[in-house]
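Q: Hi! First time doing this. I have a protein sequence and I read that you can turn it into a structure. Is that right? Here it is:
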Amino acid sequence: MNPFQRLSSYLRETFAGMPREVAVLSAVAFAVAVGFGIVFPAIPLFAKEFGVSNTAAGAVVSVFALMRFLGAFPAGWLVNRVGERLILAIGIAIVGVSSALAGLSQNYWQLLGLRGIGGLGSAMFTVSAFALLLRVVAPDQRARASGAFQGGFLIGGITGPLFGAPLLAISPRLPFFIYAATLLVAGGIGLVFLAQSRLREREKEVGTLMPPTPLRTALASRAYWAGLTNNFATGWALFGLRGSLLPLFVVGTMGLGLGASWVGAGIFISALAQGVLLIPAGHASDTRGRRPSLILGASLLAATFLLLATVETTWSYVVAMIAFGVGSAYIGTSSNAVVGDVVKGRGGTAVAVYQMSSDLGAFAGPLLAGVLADSTSFGWAFAATAGVCVIGALTAVAMPETLDKTRPPSSPQNQPERAPDLE
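A: Yes, that's right. Below is the predicted 3D structure, encoded as structure tokens:
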């Protein structure tokens, strides 16, 4: 079997029995992530061309994350009132148009403002896409569907930088236009393949044909709080420290003679482990329960940072990065599924707050851990991160199991026939 046949077989197994919308949303996630991976290295370099300081150049990156955080709750409110697909399309359009205009910026303030507007669009896309994913899958498919969706982002995020470097060498403006083009592709995929989405039929089949779950109802659930806490830990560790403090630690402090190439190698190893295990981890969560998978994922992340705090050899660093990837696969798929269970597949504002918890972790983690690293050591910074993950594991221990094991398992045979969209 050649590599293409293996890939085709893997994709068929991944999406077997799941509605078409899961594959479509995963493809949209891939296209978005490819573009982001292309443009991300260009942002601070383009800002520096306007003669600003390093802090000001960094602010162009930070404003996107800040506006994503601030825009998530309004995006959830809009999802509850006008529907996921419309908000998804508008969000992608906002990011695409603002990115193209950012590439035409004539001064720093135009670039800063347009990136902020892009952050609002990104919040709309992320919240609506995840809310739609939870809405169309059966309860015992939520973790696997989340794994497929995350896999689209992960593979796209790895692929994007491969194309970004040559483009950046031509012009720091060019990646912005390519990013806009990939978003156009993502929007086109969504418009073509989600236009006839059979949401009402799917909701009848999987039991989500109901009003969105209010945020106050979700907040009354210990399981929802476990999801929030573990998503915060994921944002802190995976989206925060892995890209900020860990590279500084590997290159400047480990004392192993490792060069900058080991930073990329470590991130690739963890991403590979995460990608390979996303679907198996989702399957475990969908069959054995959310609680054990969530405990395992949070515990592995805690162990990763305890190991990094005491790492002395190259091999121990490699082992830590493998554990990082495995833990990320389990904690991500299971916490997503927990929230889907709590809101019963419907809950725009509850999903938005869940997304905000990850963004808050990604914002706070590098800052607080950086202060610890500067004032004490990297070891204490990593120990604090392990503590955040331990808190996540404890909330998972205290939560009730949310997977309904009494419900008959979903299969391709009991999927409904395609019907006209009634939304």
